[in-house]
Amino acid sequence: MIHFTRSRNIWFTFSGILVAASIAAIAIFGFQLGLDFTGGARWEVDFMEKPLPRERVENFFQDLEDISQKPQIKTTAEQHYLITIEDMSDEKLQTISDKMYEQVGEFEEISYRKVDSSVGESFQKKAIYAIVVALIGIVIFVAFAFRKIPKAINPWRFGAVAIVALFHDVLFIVGVFVTLGYFTGLELDLAFITALLATLGFSVNDTIVILDRVRENIRLQKASETFEDSVEKSIEQTLARSINTSASTLFPLLALLIWGADAIFYFVLALTIGIAIGTYSSIFLAAPMLVSLKEWSDRRG
Fold first, then answer.
1. Does 3 map to a domain?
2. Same domain flag for 271 and 258
3. Which of 99, 114, 129 is the last residue before a domain boundary?
4. Is residue 273 part of a domain?
5. Is 288 within 8 Å of 231 (Cβ atoms)?
6. Residue 215: its pLDDT value, please?
């Protein structure tokens, strides 16, 4: 039988390793921001000549005097070229298109998407604001919801453990996607931010269910029971509910990962990882941390 609170140092160590690895990945690999945040134009073309040497496309853009930034050139599974270039006018892009048609070879334009650089900067700020506001709102809500907790335990601790669990989840997801970005070229875009915010909502919901049961068990706590006993009992009472809820959500997501469209694969992957790590942090991190905070407070007198 697993003793969730007694073995909490094991879970804390494991979570510490996950967070440290995620921070290291972010520091080493950096963020591969998508077009939504950087601005510019993304151009997908299909050359008639197959296979077309990538060096020919790269050399064409290196010799161009019409652009100031080196474009990013990738190939897709369909052997299309995905060219991300700086923000420019449609007339300028048409001139480059005509030159590439003459110097590199005949091609068909599959898609073209343009995001103004100022819009990209605005999206960056709004994404950060959305995450920060969501985290602050969660802390305030949790502290308010548990305001009738005895002062000896302090309702703000409930908000603190919820926010630590959320930071843990966010850092892990970002670390995974930064690593994928470094090795596969995956970019962080608005869909990723949407998945991140959805994960925050799911994770905090799971955490609140457990914390709410802790509140009830504290109220019904017997003289022979300790605070740790109440927390342990609360986790055991909500364990089946947490696992069943997560599993019922993960099964459809796994089906989408396997059989869904490629366009939503990474969005679904972010949700899948987020729900899995959110369930773990609610059970093994947030609730046991309450016990550690209570013991720390008692030692301080």
1. no
2. yes
3. 114
4. yes
5. yes
6. 83
Which of the residues in the chain have pLDDT under 50?
A: none
Extract the tokens encoding 17.
């390793």
| Crossing angle between the packed helical segments 190-219 and 287-300, to the nearest 10 degrees | 60
DSSP for the chain, please give it.
Answer: ---TTTTHHHHHHHHHHHHHHHHHHHHHH---B-HHHH-EEEEEEEESSSSPPHHHHHHHHHT-SS-SSPPEEEE-TTS-EEEEE----HHHHHHHHHHHHHHT--EEEEEEEEE-HHHHHHHHHHHHHHHHHHHHHHHHHHHHHTTTS-TTT-HHHHHHHHHHHHHHHHHHHHHHHHHHHHHH---B-HHHHHHHHHHHHHHHHHHHHHHHHHHHHHHT--TT--HHHHHHHHHHHHHHHHHHHHHHHHHHHHHHHHHS-GGGHHHHHHHHHHHHHHHHHIIIIIHHHHHHHHHHHHHH-
Amino acid at 37: F
The structure tokens listed for 261 are: 């469209």
Buried b (16+ CB within 10 A) or exposed e, 108-147: eeeeeebbeeeebeebbeebeeebeebbeebbeebbebbe
Q: How many residues does the chain have?
A: 301
33 phi and psi, to 5 degrees? -75, 140
Question: For 208-227, how does the pLDDT look when each residue is reduced to its tens digit (9 = 90+)?
Answer: 888 888 888 888 888 788 88
Whether residue 133 is found in the same domain as residue 104: no
Q: What pLDDT does residue 241 have?
A: 87
**173 and 137 belong to one structural domain:** yes
Q: What pLDDT shows up at residue 150?
A: 67
* Helix pair 155-184, 287-300: axis angle to 10 deg: 130
Please report where in the chains the tokens 């590199």 appear, as a residue: 104
Q: How many domains does the chain have?
A: 2
